[in-house]
């Protein structure tokens, strides 16, 4: 038999209409002549759902005995033997009774061919619940105050919507792959924001967020592309602010290393199936466009159909990307004086020297000497002084050293050419020197600025405790364009290196020597980024990162030790506070016992046998109550000190909870424990004592004639025991359960004891969950 096609009707909570939608589709299929059967439907006595079963063929359920009761399950063999075209199976999230063919109804949900979402707003679902369309009237109040709270329903609805949306994207990708479709057709808007690290990034992120809001379910992905040739010129502080902003707006931040920024941006956008790209208007000045069209124009040109590119104007547009230039800046008075002295006085002194020694060095050598003076003037005073020095030098060369001497005219055309070349060469050399020096100084300034911003931001975040180890290593990887970043440590020189933290998908060196860069921190710790070899000047900043990584790691460990110390401190506080809290409860029965004993010992009153019996009954009741309170205190002390270990075993609630009601009057508590509940993994003795305490306390504060309701229900992989009273209205349990208090609808208090279902615990044990202990088999069971 081949595999059939599966359609899943998905809903976030009971009552949204999954079964109703399936049965409605069943009637449509039957009307079209489809061979349709109902393999199993749970209508839960909902009248409108039950009516839809009329006229549909139903497969008789299989009856199974379990623990003295008879249950019905879907007869899988009968459905397969019937061989219908379509079979309807309700409630796939169901654990079958032991003895069934399959352990669960949900065997192939992830392989579904279609997923149809049946959705309803939390407010509408609560109205449906309040009208009695989901649960029976006696369960409505408890449901509205617990599972069907607006916050709970909203939290459940979100993953359902996201899961269906992701499945739609999977179907789309599979379709594109099967049909070789290159054009992007996304099921929702995926908006990529290109960031440069400049302040305009915040404007771009907010604009992208507004675009995502207009496209229902849109996603924002901010990406910063850094070159792989060294430190980034972007402001790390600004990038951190933008990362926080995009995450606050529900988007994600990505760091990509690539030398071709437009190509890298488009590759990223196509890789995430983006539909829109948001870029800022270029910060380059008009004259800089002669170097190329720019990132925005290139991305728009190469984006192709289906990928829209938005160019957003901002305040930084056309203001330039370089360092700010100080207008009217001065080189300093001393430097200017020396520049004019060398630039103008230098050629004069050379002329006096060369004419005084009466040596004919030749015009070419004379020009080289004058050129040296001009270059020196350019280095000291800049372009204007270089031009003045070249002009003075050319005139002196013409008058004193170019035939005919002492005349402005030049007899030999070759000498004229030489003088012209001298002027141009002098100016060119001077300008080139100045430009080269300025460029080097600019690069140094930019690098120093980047280093200072990185170190300042790093120190501030670490000192304030805002950066964890993973965030710090991610900052290392992003700043230096590395594939991965690791922090290695060992206990001694002979111990092996261990990984204390790692980020990035790149290779993970096992020793510092295997990394591309090795920065030691002390004797037994090293920061080891991998991806490329860094220049020597980058190691200074990397060493600062390494030192801060050691500080962060130490702080995290100290915080962990502090958190571990809180538990015994809290236990001591509780043990100190308990005597004061229960002093009244201890004194009350003790006072009653003492009063009754004093009365019996009194010789002034002749007590009748009936009176003596009542006094003795009061003494007996007070002693029992006192013994009960002392037992509870001892149990809590033993649990706090670890001298009593709960012995967990699987048991039905209906075997334990009724025994806990023995200490209260018969009509003061009502019990509602369904037989279909799964078994729970608990210590029966501790559970009985816990429930008894809750019930006795609830009965104590309940008004006369108002019974306490003890009920239980299964929710996901948990079982909840609820003790609800109508009175005037607690820590984790030792059995991996929790105890919470809620308002009872209509007034009063409801305490909810949540326990782990036996099946869920078994699955955790199979997966090796360290939080679930496997108790050793004892010789006898110890209960409190």
From TrEMBL:
It is found in: Cell membrane; Membrane. InterPro entries: HATPase_C_sf, HATPase_dom, His_kinase_dom, HisK_dim/P_dom, HisK_dim/P_sf, Histidine_kinase_KdpD, KdpD_sf, KdpD_TM. Its main location: membrane. It holds the Pfam family DUF4118. Residues 771-784 have a biased composition (Basic and acidic residues). It catalyses: ATP + protein L-histidine = ADP + protein N-phospho-L-histidine. Residues 581-784 form the Histidine kinase domain. SMART domains: HATPase_c (SM00387), HisKA (SM00388). Residues 727-747, 764-784 are annotated as: Disordered. GO terms for cellular component: plasma membrane. Keywords: ATP-binding, Kinase, Membrane, Nucleotide-binding, Phosphoprotein, Transferase, Transmembrane, Transmembrane helix, Two-component regulatory system. The chain crosses the membrane at residues 337-355, 367-396, 416-439. This is histidine kinase. It comes from Streptomyces regalis.
